[in-house]
């Protein structure tokens, strides 16, 4: 039996990956206020959201 939670199946992999992306978005929002360039902050957030949505579509398509 494996002690790695993401080694048990595809669903766990997608859930873990979504959790990682949500954590990254949380960090971006948390530290975004300290960044001087607000335009960069918004662009990074939009890019992360686009990548996240594409990732979700790919995982749903594969499962």
Automatic annotation (TrEMBL):
Keyword annotations of the record: Membrane, Transmembrane, Transmembrane helix
Parts of the chain that traverse the membrane: 6-31
Record's protein name: CLUMA_CG010480, isoform A
Natural source organism: Clunio marinus
């Amino acid at each position: 039996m494996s002690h790695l939670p993401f080694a048990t199946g595809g669903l766990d992999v997608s859930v873990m990956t979504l959790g990682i992306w949500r954590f990254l978005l949380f960090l971006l929002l948390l530290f975004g206020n300290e960044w001087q360039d607000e335009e960069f902050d918004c662009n990074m957030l939009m890019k992360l959201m686009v990548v996240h949505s594409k990732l979700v579509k790919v995982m749903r398509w594969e499962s």
